[in-house]
Amino acid sequence: MARSVTTQRKTINTVLAWAVGLLIFFPILWTILTSFKTEAQAINDPPIWFFFDWTLENYSVVQERSNYMKFLWNSVIIAGGSTVLGVIIAIPAAWSMAFVPSKRTKDILLWMLSTKMLPAVGVLYPIYLLFIKLGLLDSRFGLVIVLMLINLPIIVWMLYTYFREIPGEILEAARMDGATLKEEIIYVLTPMAIPGIASTLLLNVILAWNEAFWTLNLTAANAAPLTAFIASYSSPEGLFYAKLSAASVMAIAPILIMGWFSQKQLVRGLTFGAVK
Amino acid sequence: MNTTIRALLGATALTATAMAASADNLTIATVNNGDMIRMQGLTDDFTAKTGHTVEWVTLEENVLRQRVTTDISTKGGAFDIMTIGMYETPIWGANGWLVPLDDLSEEYNVDDILPAMAGGLSHDGTLYAAPFYGESSMIMYRTDLMEKAGMEMPDAPTWSFIREAAAAMTDRDAEINGICLRGKAGWGEGGAFITAMSNSFGARWFDMDWNAQFDTQPWKDTLEFYVGMMNESGPAGFATNGFNENLSLFQQGKCGMWIDATVAASFVTNPNDSTVADSVGFALAPDNGLGKRSNWLWAWALAIPAGTQKEAAAKEFIEWATSTGYIELVASKEGWANVPPGARTSLYENPEYQKVPFAQKTLDSILSADPNNSTVEPSPYVGVQFAAIPEFAGIATEVSQEFSAVYAGQQSIDEALEKAQAITNDAMEAAGYR
Predict the structure, then answer these.
(1) Which homologous superfamily is A66-232 in?
(2) The pTM is what?
(3) Predicted ipTM?
């Protein structure tokens, strides 16, 4: 039976939720506001909130100085490519772990997750040397592979959790009807798991889009994505906060819009299995 | 007539073909600061002259340092030219990671490079990087506040004068801090400042046997003076202030004095960004009567990694970007106040540049810093605000964290110096110096 909630409690919860939401969103809001200020207004103390001469000058300077479309295209290829490739590899892996688990499945899942605990810088030199030998330095393909490998544990975990909710009997029935393993995964399992796969895709696109260690260290002029675009506006010797903010807004805008439209799937994906 | 035109057209076509055939596309790693960005905007001039094209990889200073270090130490070949500083150049030159710049053209006039810059960018007398711009540090102060305090800034003040002036200029009610100095952790931030300051107090990082010297009186004097003065007259939270934070405070009229990079002079005197642009004076960094001032020496320079396949084109670019011709190009487009300073002697002999208010003090500051003899007592290292050994960046970052903890009131000066001594000696022992 549903518990009754008083109006007072509802109000408190709503106010609290809005306060937390605004607190989390504040850095992004401040970045957006700063991007429309002059450099002098950007550092003003006390800070200027809304009443200033709004200007698009920073956006125009950033457009003039950098080839934004090139960075954007690289981000789309790297984030999209690594996620799609990761999901293609993870679906069979998650299937085997969910439906034909062995004694070691749990250990393997934990081991996969433990690779996320290794500081990335610890393997920078080996990966860099491998990239040199394979001619992958400053290539989008190289980054697709690296980011796919980095996010693979999360993709497998998410899909595994989702697949576990699908009754094994349905797959068994398909097998009895003569479906091969390939057909079982492609025509039976995947269509049933579409919502879970979609939220996995979305979350991993965001993770790959924001990845800033490997994308900065393995690229130069050709394959640099939007993380390198933002980094090029950061300066320890000079106050260019307004331009940095404009570059940041341009870099996060595509993913922010995508996240806005797909928030339902994202929340579903992130909270899946949390409440049973 | 027709024959002549045909011959001329033919010659032009041949030249263009030859240029295109030998044209390279150079990848250059650089930092995001005003002078470098200006250079990116003027690259068309280089392309028009040589046919070579340029792609820029602009990164924040610390990211750039990590990125180019990884690439050069693995001979990755991602970059044809790297923007590096005075700290890296002699170390990388000694490792054989950089192409020696010992065959630059006569036109380039390598002897025109300021001796202090050429010395700091060389190893065993060979130049490994050409300075794009150089800097020292000096005092920038508010002339109106100094006058209000009834004091007059000497050209070369002492630390005791600075402390007295800072106290006199401080007006907490009006949010004016007598002095703003770096306190932020990091070897290139607060670490650089306190090391340069300690030189004027007679301190040094190492004795001639590479033993740490933080247990000596000059280091204690340095920290006691710095902390005492900043608590009296510095801004709140100075432990986390670096270059940008102090620049912001100064531009908003909240600092009476600021001792920092000479390159800041063009920012604080720019009326578009600074509210105090018309009342800024300059003086040499203070001393303590021991023969060493507290100013540092730094250069952002262009170097060619040994792994590049485009060495000839890279040298052409370096000759273009660090030449007197480039300085004149910037002056003609953006004025003399915006030319890259601190690299060439001839710039300071130019009557047009001499009209820039901070030009002479910048030169005097650069000339008074000697990276080969930066401490009162002899020391085994090269560098003013750093010791040019590979281990220094890591050690100095840790030591500066301990010092910042003192500024924030989290530990005592004695505790910090004791830890600094242990950190440094342990690291030097592990590296085989002791």
Answers:
(1) MetI-like (1.10.3720.10)
(2) 0.85
(3) 0.81
